[in-house]
Amino acid sequence: MPTPTVDVISFGYLHGTPPAAHLTLDLRHHFRDPHVNPELRYMTADDNEVRQAVYGTPGITALIEATAAATLAFLNGPSAGPVRVAIGCAGGRHRAAAVAMALQPALADEGITATVTHRDLDKPVVNR
Questions:
Q1: 16 CB contacts (<8 Å, ≥6 apart)?
Q2: What's the rounded Cα separation, in Å, for the pair 66 and 46?
């Protein structure tokens, strides 16, 4: 029996419609945005400083763990097939990408291989 696949996609709501997904996380209103820090604004989740700022936000670790558990619930449901998790923030360069990056190893700890795609990570900073 083939192993079900998990696709994780990070995105920015300011860059277009959210991708279709079984589970969508909207990080815009409940978690600090590194964009507001001028030192981090032009960096992305590829930079350690951004990831540390995101992972240091209260609630993020619990959210990553809960998302891994919810993803496993989808995988264990009666209908086999791929599961898509979409994670969004305002621009898609900081919070969403960092959480997507952390979800991959959290799923790997459960024996699940996930692919991660960053739809908007390389797009220009949105002036807001």
A1: none
A2: 23
